[in-house]
Write a structure and sequence with these properties.
Blueprint (H helix, E strand, L loop, with lengths): L3 H4 L1 H11 L11 E5 L2 H11 L3 E5 L14 H9 L2 E4 L5 H10 L4 E3 L8 E2 L6 E2 L7 H18 L4 H25 L7 E6 L3 H6 L3 E6 L9 H14 L3 E4 L6 H10 L2 E4 L15 H15 L4
Parallel strand pairs: 1-2, 1-3, 3-4, 7-8, 7-9, 9-10
Antiparallel strand pairs: 5-6
Length: about 300
């Protein structure tokens, strides 16, 4: 097997020497996958196992929508055997993949159907497909097949890993279905409308203070509208998240007497929670939702 990284190894050593950089440089072995956002990093690590090196472009604690790439990161994209990304979520990644890695791209939007966002939530395509375990399982299968093509010697292992991940995600989906089946209310208010896949799948009603973009600012009219809905529907919890300011959600909570709780859109993992991973955060979200919605 001759991967893109291995093929570029000698050239990379020459470039380092010519630049006068100190320290040893190792030639990369195995298959390399680059991802744009944390849930895809987790998925690639699970499917690839020890045979695959996975590099995520978004640093822990950073908001992925606003990612800007350094020349080094563009080089990582160019050298990767697979560039796993969601077209439309991170414009800088879209551009770099189109220019540097078109042949190695695996666009999630070509694997699973992405939901269209209502105009009231900003319009466009919703990239947060990882909040639907079934869609994640489908991507796992496609990634397993792509890795098997690149590394035929490891094909059986990649396919077995993909099936194991799909089974784990199936269990997670069943837990959500059972826990959210019987709830006193199906309305939940979030700081930004990232939970549409979850709402659609489990028959919930997402009410976003802001739209699909986490850094958008709600108008005074929108704030008043959400506050009125909270009062009318008896919503008890306003959900904040981990990577953006909770100020907007806290304002609505203060005006309505609701409490706040964290519902993590899983766009990234923070350094403050090194033990967290995709399944554990998804289950924490389920616990938080079930409590807020008074599910039996």
């Amino acid at each position: 097997m001759m991967t893109k990284v291995a093929a570029a190894g000698a050239a990379g050593l020459v470039a380092v020497a010519a630049a006068g950089c100190g320290g040893a440089t190792e030639e990369a072995d195995g298959v390399s996958v680059v991802t744009g956002v944390y849930p895809l990093e987790w998925l690639a690590s699970q499917v690839g196992g020890e045979a695959v090196t996975v590099t995520n472009l978004t640093e822990p604690g950073a908001e992925p929508h606003d990612l800007e790439l350094s020349p080094r990161q563009i080089g990582v994209i160019s050298d990767a055997d697979v560039a796993l990304y969601i077209q439309g979520m991170q414009p800088a990644v879209d551009d770099a993949v189109a220019q540097q890695a078109a042949d190695s791209a695996l666009d999630v939007a070509q694997v699973v159907e992405l939901r269209e966002v209502p105009s009231a939530d900003g319009g466009g395509t919703d990239p947060h497909m990882w909040l639907d375990p079934q869609r994640m399982a489908e991507v796992a299968g496609s990634l397993g097949e792509r890795l098997a093509e690149i590394d035929p010697d490891g094909a059986a292992a990649y396919r077995a890993n993909a099936q194991r991940v799909a089974d784990e995600l199936g269990t997670l989906e069943a837990e959500y279905t059972e826990r959210l089946d019987d709830c006193e209310t199906r309305n939940f208010v979030v700081s930004h409308a990232a939970f549409g896949y979850l709402a659609d799948k489990y028959d919930l009603n997402q009410i976003g203070i802001t739209g699909i973009e986490p850094d958008s600012e709600p108008s005074p009219a929108r704030m008043a509208e959400v506050a009125e809905t909270v009062r009318e529907q008896g919503v008890t919890t306003i959900f904040t998240e981990t990577l953006v300011s909770p100020a907007v959600a806290e304002t609505v909570a203060e005006e309505t007497g609701a409490r706040t709780a964290v519902l993590d859109p899983l766009e990234g993992i923070t350094d403050a929670s090194p033990g967290d991973d995709y399944p554990s955060v998804m289950r924490a979200n389920l616990d938080t939702l079930a409590e807020a919605l008074s599910c039996s």
